[in-house]
């Protein structure tokens, strides 16, 4: 599946080779979210019990959804790249284990940093909006919507759907780590930064293991619910069993379900491999349709080579192209296109050549994008791509803004 997304008519966006540079533009979305979030501090001081939940809901739409929609419109991204698709029954164990890994790991890290105080503080959103309820059913329902469900949907839209898709264009390493890093920075809480970073990594890995953003949304929502309602029970467990038992149970749950989470993720990836899915990280709906049609030879990748984009094709006739790889170009392996055989238009001599391409389909065999840089990056273009994503000018602006807010 081709992931190259051209844009036209947008002169304001940084461009490279005719397309916008996502590692430059993506941090601008993060910076907009950070700025709007800090402005909401002044609104919080004006809230009363009568308008608290409505204001928190509207603010989240303003902080996350509106900037994300504007960003998608400017970059001409479509909903197909956001991985908005249902999860299956086979994903439930992974989702459950992800929830327990996040919660048990968060309890352990927060305990190590803050001790018993981590069990008595109220749940809050980004250190600004503190959850509270009068115990009534209606108040609890609004609490769940405003402080658990909507934050999960809004934050996953920005940090998993949009940012992961954008950073994939540059580096998969950056696509996993940078959205998680920005997610941890979002909360502006250095004491709990390690816990938020770990949670962000688990949520990102859940996205890639299930190929659906709904999975991390469910994990995030369940984690928020536990954070809101479980603190009383955690304090009771500590008071009854003591510190050693409390730490033992949390550590045992973390280790057990981390192992289960990794095993389930590995199982899902094996299924993708054995099922001949595309190597694309997006794994969009067209891929499912292709697989369903290929069995009877009517799909675009039919087994007998009659389709428009054969998986095999009659030997020696060149009746079809190889299945599209993760890099958006045909080939035998993700990121590599092999031209060979007699009469190849790219190689008239018949010798076999290898062409390396990046995720947008550009030829990187000679690493043209890393000329004029230190020798290490010339030899390791993927490291160069990750480095430029982490230290782009706009990413540095996000780091500086975070540091200024924390110091002030």
List descriptors.
408 residues; two-stranded antiparallel ribbon; 12 helices; 6 strands
Question: Care to describe what's here?
Answer:
There is one protein chain. The chain starts with 14 loop residues before the first strand and ends with a helix. Among the domains are: 20-266, no CATH class; 330-361, no CATH class. The model is unreliable at 1-19, 281-353 and 362-369 (pLDDT under 50). It is globular. The chain contains twelve helices and six strands. It is mainly α and 408 residues long. The protein has helices at 22-44, 52-75, 92-114, 137-168, 172-186, 193-210, 214-229, 231-274, 285-294, 375-379, 381-390, 393-407; strands at 15-16, 19-20, 124-125, 129-130, 336-339, 353-356. The protein has a two-stranded antiparallel sheet with strand order 1-2. The protein has a two-stranded antiparallel sheet with strand order 3-4. It has a two-stranded antiparallel sheet with strand order 5-6.
